[in-house]
From TrEMBL:
Keywords: Decarboxylase, Lyase, Pyrimidine biosynthesis. Belongs to the OMP decarboxylase family. Type 2 subfamily. GO terms for molecular function: orotidine-5'-phosphate decarboxylase activity. Its EC number is 4.1.1.23. It is an enzyme of class 4 (lyase). This is Orotidine 5'-phosphate decarboxylase. Pathway: Pyrimidine metabolism; UMP biosynthesis via de novo pathway; UMP from orotate: step 2/2. NCBIfam families: pyrF_sub2 (TIGR02127).
Amino acid sequence: MTDTTPFGTRLRTALDTRGQLCVGIDPHGSLLTAWGLNDDLAGLETFSRTVVEALADRVAVLKPQAAFFERFGSRGIAVLERSVAEAREAGALVLMDAKRGDIGSTMAAYAETFLAPDSPLFSDALTVSPYLGFGSLQPAVDLAHANGCGLFALALTSNPEGHEVQRAVGADGQSVAQAVLRRLAAENAGAEPLGSFGAVVGATLADAGVDLAINGPLLAPGVGAQGATAADLPRVFGDQVRNVVPSVSRDVLKHGPSVQALRQAAQVFVDDVRAVTN
């Protein structure tokens, strides 16, 4: 039976008990090669199973990047299905990094793919793009509410190109990013201890320059290989730092294929974040 406890409630517990860390499962070709694996289906499966074995019973969130599995077609998707199921069974919350965004029945189909309990890709949360208008995400919002799932909407991303859209100012004087954050805050109104509708806000930002008090989680890519450190989090996120979910991929994954080395690398990030958030 699916646990319909709101994602925000489950995430708050995971962050408080396992530490504030999301590790990406990003099996790109160069990383498979660095692990001594072939860039093929067998390499993909070995890589994914190893990451899940090493981390799913100890980190708060695992974040598979769907594109790296999709490039192998249906057999890659089958590996993704198994990875999601095994990670959730081991206790990790699974955030599917698919950045879906569309309108009407197409958005509803994307939502059903990742947020319907009878789907083989059912995940605890999904990254979404609000740049066809936040209202276009309503099918995913509705299904997330119904099934205890979460969404993470792109707000202020860590890539420099994002600013031309996200920092653009509308007729009301608000930036696009602030408008997205305002809508997320509305979805999270009254939720305790944490809302289920989060924002993606890059840890590499010099200054967020927006109100991040959305009563929801803030997924923070950019820690590690992109240059941000745990020490940067209080500066960027201020009094919302306790709700930050730092997302690290390469700086943990490069320590594979050793299970023990992966665990040690993840623990270093957990300890570093705990030191600055406490």
